[in-house]
Amino acid sequence: MAVFSRRAVLQWDGDIPDGSGLVMPGSDAFTAQAIFPSIAGDPPGKTTPEELLAASHATCYGIGLRSLIARRGGRARRVSVTATVTAEKGPQGIRLQSSHLTGIVDGLEGIDESAVQELARETEERCTISLAIRAAVAVSSEVRIAAVNHSD
Known about the structure:
Number of domains: 2
Helix content: 25-40%
Strand content: 25-35%
Shape: elongated
């Protein structure tokens, strides 16, 4: 068994309501401006912990789905996943309520469409981020095949 770790650093300046920060992963793959979530809406170009969790969940699930399709002998031109993390902000702070994954498989070959929902379920059960948050909130998923355009 291979053991590995990943890291990210948050550098925060100022207090919570008026401050902001930068999130930088150890891989240097990106730098994102971070803010404290507001009910009134967040300024464009800045992210929140909940949005970063959604990005992690979409990435984990999408890579997992693509991998499982290949292990089952299939191919896909593209896999697209949207993760929607829902949270409530109240007197006790921000509490996650759910994470919903919606996937689209484009150009699926070698796997019958009737097997896609089983692949979706198995991928969700194995996804590292799903496993980490499932005990605290509801996690759901759905995957559909992209409409085939025969005029290409």
